[in-house]
Structure to design on (364 residues):
């Protein structure tokens, strides 16, 4: 097989700062584990606008379509707030998601023991938590027609439509079953089949797809109960698959079980390419954090964990992904903290590159 390819898009604000630490880690895997990547770096967001007048050049878009995985930092910042909507930094990100047709958004909620105190829940409820929410990203109520605000009689009516085709549900379900196969072979599908026809279809199609994955234990749950269960006993889940709207809310809820924005990775997957790998973009959940940009304070772990997800879900290097995650766990257990992870005053925070140093040392 040819050398796997990566497109790195650092972006704006803290994006380039956290991505610099990821690049050191990628280099480590090349030197110490013989895991070489063919890396291309390009501009996105405000940085691309400054140079090319657009938040994503056609050339970079074409590159994103051809590589095995895209790794993105963050885009945006106050400097760009005055720009016309059509060239705002976020449009670069939206173009990538749309043209790559990334229909499955993967949001893990993983609790590192050393940070369990950060959770708003009891330590034993979240310690060791490791679940994954797969959210359908390109259809559902955010896109369905008709939509708009109309006037009926003497009042306004706001309209959005939940609409799912079988094929849209099927491809999201397949992505979730494939993930479950790479994890613990347990999948819970959430909808509201009790009150929504789109939920009935969702349940039907997910059940149909399950015939191709007899090893995966499938369950169904109403999404409101799912919300309760996520807060009551999150460790009962492994992979959860749900629609765009429920997934938006449930994934934010699950993510916060585990603490800081600086720790949260994500992935967005599309259809399989000719080599069998899904189109994929990996990125931290956080934004460009203009309030701390340029100060070396940013926590690089969310971006590093996004690379770990790339290792596991794009490159079938699950053992190497675990190696990286374990190193992060060890560093945190040793008490190394960036400023965002500090609960008490007595500890001196490390810088962005200080955290990178510690993770590299732990990898060694
Ligand atoms: P943000 O995620 O950039 O920051 C929210 C808060 O969390 C800030 O106080 C920030 O300092 C802190 N924070 C975020 N990441 C951190 C890290 N790695 N380490 C330590 N602290 C961290 O969200 P905000 O402030 O709403 O947006 C700032 C800019 O980022 C805006 O221009 C927004 O449009 C853009 N944005 C971009 C996203 C992306 O590229 N995917 C996602 C969200 C926002
Ligand atoms: Mg949200």
């Amino acid at each position: 097989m040819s050398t796997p390819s990566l497109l790195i898009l650092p972006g704006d604000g803290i994006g380039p700062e956290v991505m610099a630490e990821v690049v050191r880690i990628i280099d480590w895997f090349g030197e110490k584990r013989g895991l070489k990547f063919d890396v291309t770096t390009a501009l996105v967001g405000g940085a691309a606008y400054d140079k090319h007048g657009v938040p994503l050049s056609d050339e970079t878009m074409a590159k994103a379509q051809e590589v095995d995985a895209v790794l993105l930092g963050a885009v945006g910042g106050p400097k760009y707030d005055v720009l016309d909507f059509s060239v705002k930094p976020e449009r670069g990100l939206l173009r990538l998601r749309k043209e790559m047709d990334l229909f499955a958004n993967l949001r893990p909620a993983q609790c590192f023991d050393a940070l369990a105190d950060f959770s708003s829940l009891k330590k034993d409820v979240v310690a060791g938590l490791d679940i994954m929410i797969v959210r359908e990203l390109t259809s559902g109520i955010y896109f369905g027609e008709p939509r708009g605000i109309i006037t009926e009689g003497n009042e306004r009516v706001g309209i959005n439509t939940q609409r799912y085709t079988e094929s849209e549900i099927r491809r999201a379900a397949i992505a979730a079953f494939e993930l479950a196969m790479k994890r613990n072979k347990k999948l819970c599908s959430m909808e509201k089949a009790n009150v929504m026809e789109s939920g009935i279809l969702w349940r039907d199609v997910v059940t149909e797809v399950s015939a191709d994955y007899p090893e995966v234990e499938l369950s169904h749950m109403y999404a409101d109960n799912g919300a309760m269960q996520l807060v009551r006993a999150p460790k009962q889940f492994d992979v959860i698959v749900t629609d765009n709207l429920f997934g938006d809310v449930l994934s934010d809820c699950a993510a916060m079980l585990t603490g800081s924005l600086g720790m949260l990775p994500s992935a967005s997957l599309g259809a399989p390419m000719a080599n069998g790998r899904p189109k994929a973009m990996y990125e931290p959940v956080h934004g460009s954090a203009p309030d701390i940009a340029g100060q070396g304070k940013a926590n690089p772990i969310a971006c590093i964990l996004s690379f770990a997800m790339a290792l596991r879900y794009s490159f079938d290097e699950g053992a190497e992904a675990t190696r990286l995650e374990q190193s992060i766990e060890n560093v945190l257990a040793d008490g190394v903290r960036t400023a965002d992870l500090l609960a008490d005053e007595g500890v001196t925070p490390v810088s962005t590159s200080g955290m990178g140093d510690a993770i590299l040392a732990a990898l060694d």
Q: What stands out?
A: The domain at 1-105+263-364 is CATH 3.40.718.10 (Isopropylmalate Dehydrogenase). The chain has a mean pLDDT of 95.
